[in-house]
Amino acid sequence: MELKTLLTSMVIIGFSAGLVSAQADATLAVEGEVISTSASAPAFAENLDTVYSGWRFRKLETRSLQLDDFDNPAFVFVDKGIDLFEKVDGTEGKACASCHEDVEDFAGLRPKMPRVEDGTLVTMENLVNECRTERMGAEPWKYSGGQMTAVTALIGLQSRGMSVNVAFDGDAAPFFERGQELYYQRVGQLDMSCSNCHEDNYGVMIRADHLSQGQINGFPTYRLKNAKLNSAHARFKGCMKNIRATPYKEGGDEFKALELYLAARGNGLSVETPSVRN
Amino acid sequence: MKKIFMITAVSVLSVTTAFADTAPSDVVFSDGAVMASLTTVSGDAAAGRDIFKNRKLGNCLACHMNDDMPKQQFHGEVGPPLTGVGGRWEEAELRGIVTNAKMMFEGTIMPGFYIDSGYERPLKKFDGKSILSAQQLEDVVAYLLTLKD
Lengths: 278, 149
Description:
The structure holds two protein chains of two kinds. Chain A has ten helices and eleven strands. By secondary structure, chain A is an alpha+beta fold. Chain A has two domains: 164 residues, Orthogonal Bundle (Cytochrome Bc1 Complex, Chain D, domain 2), CATH 1.10.760; 83 residues, Cytochrome Bc1 Complex, Chain D, domain 2. Chain B contains four helices and no strands.
């Protein structure tokens, strides 16, 4: 009798531990401000009820690095972004700050990226490089390079805590549909799609990694693995190489479409830029 | 004299059999199982155990827990635990599952370990190649058969 009760309670504990481990049920408060790390899934994501930030799936030590900007290793790079923002470059003798007096004016931009302009899908990186080449007479920065991620992190930070809200209808619809197609397409020698891991199996361990939904609300992301900021496209590239697939080009049409689709899957999550992951 | 002749014949035979592995495209499935061994050399379970955990070879541990490997720190949970799997499936079924799991489990995430075509955009160095060789596949099957409760 006693043994039976004991066994039953063990089973219950085991079961609920299993449930909790799917994703941490914790609150992310950065610098005291609460940031929502879950939201009800958009209707088109038929196989999901709730969307979760990747933060929820990381270990406690990794999660806690994001709670305080002094602990967050990404801020070394954000500071570099501030310097770059103020640095004169190019034939016009201008810095970003010459025209964009206050970087805080970019608040509200990150949740709406990527977006369609005159029939072209445009990412944050594209906007920055457009100003460099068209308005400063400067060389474009490398798409996922250190200068670019420093500045896109600085710009993204201005919207931290705001809800992702990209448009995926109207003239964005064809890009969204292309992104959706890529998300479900199996590729590589391992013959897997993004959905195989991030939709069908989020919440479980794949060897040492706790699979998340592969959301992009925290990009650019500081990774402990390479100790630098990573663009969303660099992350897509890494996932493709892991399944032994030839990645698409960073900044190319496929990854831009995938970015729009993933951003839309995360509509309602808060911008977490710059997030910390392993 | 006769004896020497026989030895030569045997060694010739074993050289040719090394090339007689069944090619990925020639593997015959029936209900997801593969009856015939893909090689003439029987599988080496100890080698199969290494392949099971090696991240660059089987990496089966990425998705499957396995109580036979308590020293390995990380066991995946994407697929069912393989503890005791040798008692649940016949040899031919295990060979079929590891060769191309999609023949047994439609739409599965589990990769086909002995297919060399039918996948898109592989990295160049893997183009036209299978993840495991025929012998490695037989080694893994031999290892799985040792996993009995």
